[in-house]
């Protein structure tokens, strides 16, 4: 499990070969120094920097960039080395860049294994006038290595930092570093625009999809910002999701843009030198994205006012998607830092109280009472400090949410957003789809949209089992089935609404006909491919047709003959809604459904099951692979999703139509009318 460090906190390192990842909102110089037992750096040969990037057991980046990966092999460093310090500095070679950390987003540093699994991380908050900082130090104690979060900044820059580490030629080395950076400045990739002016929050490039894309159960681990299908790339209710978010081995670059700090970016340079083309290989003929909107000026000493769409991207939709991703990451890290600080305060107070009780001298007079009161006072001060930092970050996030939510396009917006009243059938498929909201108990008033990348990479399971909502009330099985199907209808309507006419088809299986009322909006507006299938014959017919479609498309793709599909085959994306599963399904039908869940998404066939897993226990392990392949959602608020970094239990709230609203039939009627026109 990743350790979210606060300043001064340390953590053991379980392995010698490591990678240190740095993410910031502006190009930084990354360097490292080797120190002896006292931390003294004895000369230029003890410093790794862009001009001399490799030392025994250590290698740093060769240029300034917004992201860095430093390679460390602690077994290979000289025996005289007892400390490896990771340094970050703003580049004085970039005249247009910031000159103090207080003007940029707080850098984020993570120590990972070679497999990408995070061991410890640290967000460098609280910096102001400093232009260089010691971010982390790896130090040797009694033959074992640990990592400590340092965060010591220097207003005098790299020269002052190196001088503080005992280097006589600190000014000379700092000059060499800046010359090396200036020489490579033309090769460094521009960073995305800074997230905030006060630098209190970090921001990494968003991963494609549950980013808020797919979710993970709180009882399990999570994936690695989640590839294009990840809340934001974690795991599902009962197992890992397909890559796409926050459990993937690392954050993915924002879609359609260059990978900031990626050394492979230099491959686009022409062989004979000259200017380098950093345009995305799939966008060679696309115009460069317009600059993000500028934030209005802030009052002196106040954080910059947030602006909707200030993340990187080739379109406003992409920027908003990445901005939502950043908000999700910011809230996760802010809450983790607060919890870590409170845990540290608790453990420190417990240790001090134990020491007071174990000291016989504390039993004389009032010394014991005084020691306990002092320990509690220090605990209260630490908790108050953590709460102050949390409140500051949450206020900034709340301000950002207030401007982002109204600016979201229909695919990302809640059903009560006015954008739906001006709905028009789109001409293009959006990047992602909103399936609900995510929140944490420390920030109950902040809702982060849960966005899933399109096309869907895994099916959805709407849990209709008996559940206790967060307010402590229980919903009976009949009510949960109704709520589950209403949630499925809302999700299906949104999927229909965000696809161009004729590019998304919905089928429904309702074996016992028990879902007539919740399904009415889909049935009455005529957006379904056919009336809901009922009975064993109806179930078999729908499953046979969709299974055949998967087989045909797979054969065509594998044979390289996509144009040889039978005439009249519906090549649009297909969604199958199954109500009250597994009632009405025999073993053959269950196996067909498992086949569709496994093979369907790759060829445009997706599942949405409304089911109570407890009632399915009679099928034994037959259904386990099916449940594991689906993303679990609920019709009531439930804290069952986990993020990929620290495993927070996020409360998921479904995206439902407000009671009494006519937005759903209005939108579906527009979809049906567009489909009729398209079919003519």
Protein architecture, described:
The chain is of the alpha+beta class and 680 residues long. It has a domain at 3-187: Lipoxygenase-1 (Sandwich). The protein contains 10 helices and 23 strands. The strands form 4 sheets. Strands 1, 2, 3, 4, 5, 6, 7, 8, 9, 10, 11 and 12 form a 12-stranded mixed beta sheet that branches. The protein has a 5-stranded parallel beta sheet with strand order 18-19-20-15-21, sandwiched between helices. The protein has a 4-stranded antiparallel beta sheet with strand order 14-13-23-22. α3 (316-358) packs antiparallel against α4 (367-407), α5 runs parallel beside α6 and α7 runs parallel beside α8. The protein is elongated, with a radius of gyration of 28 Å.
Brief synopsis:
The protein has 680 residues and is an alpha+beta fold.
Keywords:
single chain, 680 residues, alpha+beta, Lipoxygenase-1, 12-stranded mixed beta sheet, 5-stranded parallel beta sheet, 23 strands, elongated
């Amino acid at each position: 499990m990743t350790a979210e460090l606060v300043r001064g906190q340390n953590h053991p390192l379980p392995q010698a070969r490591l990678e240190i990842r740095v993410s910031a909102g502006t190009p930084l110089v990354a360097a490292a120094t080797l120190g002896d037992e006292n931390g003294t750096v004895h000369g230029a040969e003890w410093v790794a920097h862009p001009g001399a990037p490799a030392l025994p057991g250590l290698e740093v980046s060769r240029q300034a960039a917004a992201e860095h990966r430093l390679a460390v092999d602690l077994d290979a460093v000289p025996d005289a080395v007892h400390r490896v310090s990771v340094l970050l500095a703003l580049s004085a070679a970039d005249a247009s860049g910031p000159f103090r950390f207080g003007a940029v987003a707080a850098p984020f540093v993570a120590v990972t294994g070679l497999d990408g699994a995070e061991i410890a991380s640290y967000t460098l908050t609280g910096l102001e006038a400093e232009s260089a900082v010691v971010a982390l130090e790896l130090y040797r104690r009694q033959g074992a290595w640990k990592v400590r979060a340092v965060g010591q900044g220097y207003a005098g820059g790299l020269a002052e930092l190196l001088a503080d580490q005992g280097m006589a030629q600190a000014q000379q080395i700092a000059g060499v570093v800046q010359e090396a950076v200036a020489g490579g400045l033309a090769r460094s990739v521009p960073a995305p625009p800074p997230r905030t002016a006060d630098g209190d929050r970090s921001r990494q490039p968003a991963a494609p999809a549950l980013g808020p894309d797919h979710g993970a159960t709180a009882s399990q681990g999570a994936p690695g910002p989640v590839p294009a299908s990840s809340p934001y790339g974690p795991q599902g209710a009962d197992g890992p999701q397909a890559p796409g978010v926050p459990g993937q081995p690392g954050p993915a670059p924002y879609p359609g843009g260059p990978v900031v700090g990626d050394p492979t970016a230099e491959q686009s340079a022409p062989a004979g030198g000259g200017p380098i083309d950093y345009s995305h290989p799939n966008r060679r003929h696309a115009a460069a994205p317009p600059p993000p909107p500028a934030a209005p000026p802030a009052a002196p000493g106040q954080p910059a006012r947030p602006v909707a769409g200030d993340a990187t991207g080739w379109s406003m939709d992409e920027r908003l998607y990445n901005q939502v991703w950043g908000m999700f990451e910011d809230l996760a890290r802010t809450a983790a830092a607060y919890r870590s600080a409170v845990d540290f305060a608790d453990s420190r107070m417990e240790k001090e109280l134990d020491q007071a009780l174990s000291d016989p001298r504390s039993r004389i007079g009032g010394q014991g009472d005084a020691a306990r009161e002092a320990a509690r006072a220090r605990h209260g001060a630490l908790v108050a400090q953590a709460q102050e930092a949390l409140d500051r970050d949450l206020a900034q996030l709340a301000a950002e949410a207030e401007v982002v939510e109204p600016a979201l396009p229909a695919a990302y917006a809640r059903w009560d957003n006015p954008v739906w009243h001006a709905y028009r059938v789109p001409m293009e498929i959006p990047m992602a789809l909103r399936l609900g909201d995510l929140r944490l108990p420390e920030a109950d008033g902040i809702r982060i949209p849960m966005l899933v990348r399109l096309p869907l990479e895994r099916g959805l399971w709407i849990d209709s089992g008996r559940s206790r909502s967060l307010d402590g009330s229980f919903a009976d099985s009949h009510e949960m089935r109704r709520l589950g199907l209403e949630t499925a209808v809302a999700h299906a309507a949104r999927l229909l609404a965000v696809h161009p006419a004729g590019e998304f088809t919905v089928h429904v299986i309702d074996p016992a006909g028990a879902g007539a009322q919740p399904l009415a909006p889909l049935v009455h507006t005529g957006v379904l491919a056919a009336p809901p299938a009922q009975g064993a014959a109806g179930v078999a017919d729908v499953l046979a047709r969709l299974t055949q479609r998967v087989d045909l498309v797979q054969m065509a793709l594998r044979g390289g003959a996509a144009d040889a599909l039978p005439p009249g085959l519906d090549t649009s994306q297909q969604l199958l809604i199954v109500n009250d599963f597994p009632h009405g399904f025999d073993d053959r039908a269950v196996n067909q459904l498992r086949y569709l869940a496994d093979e369907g998404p790759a060829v445009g066939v997706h599942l949405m099951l409304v089911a109570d897993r407890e009632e399915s226990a009679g099928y034994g392990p037959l259904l386990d692979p099916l449940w594991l392949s689906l993303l679990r959602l609920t019709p009531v608020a439930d804290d069952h999703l986990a993020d990929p970094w620290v495993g927070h239990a996020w409360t998921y709230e479904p995206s439902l139509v407000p009671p009494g609203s006519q937005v759903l039939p209005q939108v579906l009627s527009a979809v049906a009318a567009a489909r009729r026109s398209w079919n003519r």
